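Below is how a single chain appears once it has passed through the pipeline. First comes the sequence as given, then the structure the pipeline wrote out for it. We keep one example in the README because the format questions we get most often are answered faster by looking than by reading.
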Amino acid sequence: MIQCNDSPSKDSQPTNQSKSSSSSVGKFVKIPEKESNIKFSNPNKETWDRYIRNFNYMYNGSGVAVGDINNDGLPDIYLVSNTTSNKLFLNKGDFRFEDITTKAKVDGGGGWHNGAFMVD
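Resulting structure:
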């Protein structure tokens, strides 16, 4: 998920690779939702009154933050949505995640969200 080059640096640590990505070292590989358990969508229905007139930056996206929230050494993912709930996914290893948004109380509470950061 994070590596995108063909050769790891001399300081890099071994990582778990998904079964679906083992033959594609160094390339981004799409991991199916059924395998990763990451279910997220940021739909933006384009309307003049709701978005374009009031918010010129609707196409800039909303936000992604990656960090290790439980100190297990695995990168967890926080996804921000403009029109739906934000999502926090806890990395369980081997590119499998658990949606802990409700438990962590970080759904954003409605409204328009853009921008995310995480300090690890």
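Residues 48-52 form the longest helix (5 residues).

See the next section for the split statistics.
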